[in-house]
Design a protein that fits this description.
alpha+beta, Alpha-Beta Plaits, four-stranded antiparallel β-sheet, globular
Length: about 140
């Protein structure tokens, strides 16, 4: 079994879609081993997305991620990273395949409803950013 990190972003939360996305997560066979509802501060968002600090979209991204509540999760499944990324779909909802979360719930590349780790090393960092080991059941 593999673990990955996932976020249901503020846009999906504000639109009332967090429950629908969480239901899909369970339907697709993931086990949720960690779950928190958070309201990230700008500083927390900047720390989480530090790898993008030199990119032109950094301020817009961190403003967005600190604009409202989100759900942060640790998901477990066989090949969880790939499975979650496949379920999310392409970063740009306009390019995402039908049936993916971003196609159904995202509006544009900057507000695409979900986030997911892209590699085991990224997952390890992202999980530890939000969860202590004792919080994962």
């Amino acid at each position: 079994m593999e673990r990955t990190f996932a976020i249901i972003k503020p846009d999906a939360f504000a639109a009332g879609n967090a429950g629908k996305i969480l239901a899909r997560i369970y339907q697709e066979g993931f086990v949720v081993v960690g779950l928190k509802k958070l309201y990230l501060s700008k500083v927390e968002a900047e720390g989480f997305y530090y790898v993008h600090r030199e990119r032109p979209f950094f301020d817009e991204l961190t403003d967005f991620m600190s604009s409202g509540p989100c759900l942060v999760m640790v998901l477990e499944a066989e090949q969880a990273i790939k499975k979650w990324r496949d379920l999310m779909g392409a970063t740009d909802p306009a390019e995402a395949a039908d049936g993916t979360l971003r196609k159904e719930f995202g509006t544009f590349v900057g507000e695409n409803a979900t986030h997911g780790s892209d590699a085991p090393e990224t997952a390890a960092f992202e999980i530890s950013y939000f969860f202590a080991g004792m919080e994962l059941l």
